[in-house]
Amino acid sequence: MTQRTCLSIILAAGEGTRMKSGQAKVLHQIAGLPMVAHVARAAESAGADAVALVVGHGGDAVRKAAEAFAPKAAVFVQAERLGTAHAVLAARDAIAKGRDDILVMFGDTPLVEADSLALARAKLAEGAAVVVIGFRPPNPAGYGRLVETAGKLVAIREDKDCTDEERKIGFCNAGLMAISGAHALKLLEQVGNANAKGEFYLTDIVEIADKAGLTVVAIEASFESVLGINNRAELAEAEAIWQKRRRRQAMVDGATLIAPETVYFSHDTEIGADVLVEPNVWFGVGVKIADGATVHAFSHLEGASVGPRAEIGPFARLRPGAEIHEKAKVGNFCEVKKATIEKGAKVNHLTYIGDARVGAGANIGAGTITCNYDGYSKFFTDIGEGAFIGSNSSLVAPIVIGAGAYVASGSVITDQVPEDSLAFGRARQKTLPGKGKELRERRASAKK
Ligand code: UD1
Ligand code: MG
To answer: From the CA of 270, how far away is ligand 2's center (Å)?
Structure first.
């Protein structure tokens, strides 16, 4: 088969008032990615090579966001919201460029799967002019119904325009459609607005195409995959569905999740095989976990990479720029930011490592802090291979601690510590025999 070209038109002109938000509805995120970007990705996975984004009045934030998730998208403004067909026609110039396939998608239907879109495109390739993606919701009220005669789709009737008989139909319109590029403009231009809402319904093209003798077919998608988001409760529902899919994928790909329902992924989390993830772990955006690593319970990772067989947590926080190399360990109540923990190094207890390198095999004692910030700028701490930092040390950056050096516990290190040297940065202990007892007696008699 020769490669068919495909334009996806993503409708995002809705105001989303039910989100009760200062932010455009389609920019609310699922797994750390705006809903509309999920839609663009699904289109891309289904082979769409061009994107037209239809935004509403004041859609500048959406336009701006699109620069990140669909930099090549053409953005069109639908200034007046006169219905879904009217919205699609806002992208008339993109349609007129003449693509083989057109996928119409909704920016607030983020869980759509590439499989359904690809199937719809396959039907176009077989000669259909319009392919409707249908679904069977538990409660069809509010959705357009797919009206079939002798097993053939002849119309979509919007809920408000349905007869009582039609309202009983359980097969509904998900809203997403594939239209043959050769027929699209002609079909769309025939849509009128003589209906209950006085809107130009995209759904009317089904009847128009059928009457013109063109082939119209319906395919079915799962309820979950075409869930439309109108409020934050539905947003949370969509997040839950997304997370469930992703957890399953992680396990299928060879990671062990002991309590999968407590592990949260981001849209771009990369997780290898034989990774063990204990309960209650959060993967924020930009996390990569290599094969064989372990992430213990209650860890929070974001913008971090974890090398093969490294161990994180329990209760660890990896912030952006944390790079944990092979077999290194970041243990309980440790925070690592913009720092490399090289092979086999250990940062095991109650420590903050920021703007730093911890050389291979180094050991960082409990309670060690890199003092990386003076209130104005950030400074670097370089800890050499095999160095040993005693517990409760403050390393005042910028500072270099050489390979194999030893820092005594409780030190405040402000000067460079050369390789293999031993540094004390604390007051020497003074012990006065018997003075403890004497002090106690003096205090006690003073109190009488
Ligand atoms: C639409 C379908 C209905 C389907 C339902 C599935 C039509 C006429 N109806 O109804 O058959 O069952 O979705 O959820 O298509 N939009 C614009 N500009 C407009 C109007 C809408 O961009 O002028 C966008 C909205 O932002 C939204 C999408 O199109 O993303 C659907 O619009 P909406 O008003 O939610 O349509 P429904 O009445 O839900
Ligand atoms: Mg809707």
So the answer is: 33
CA distances from 380 to 14, 191, 393 (A): 48, 65, 16
pLDDT number for residue 14: 86
Alpha carbon 305 to its chain's center: 16
Domains of the chain: 6-226 (3.90.550.10), 245-423 (2.160.10.10)
Ligand 1 atom at minimal distance to the Cα of residue 78: 18
Q: State the pLDDT at residue 2.
A: 64
Report the percent of the chain where pLDDT is more than 70: 100
Q: Which residues contact 422 (CB under 8 A, 6 or more apart)?
A: 405, 406, 407, 408
Q: Whose CA is nearest to atom 39 of ligand 1?
A: 143
Q: pTM of whole model > 0.85?
A: yes
CA of 217 to the centre of ligand 2 (A): 22
Each residue of 55-98: pLDDT tens digit? Answer: 998 899 999 999 999 999 999 999 999 999 999 999 999 999 99
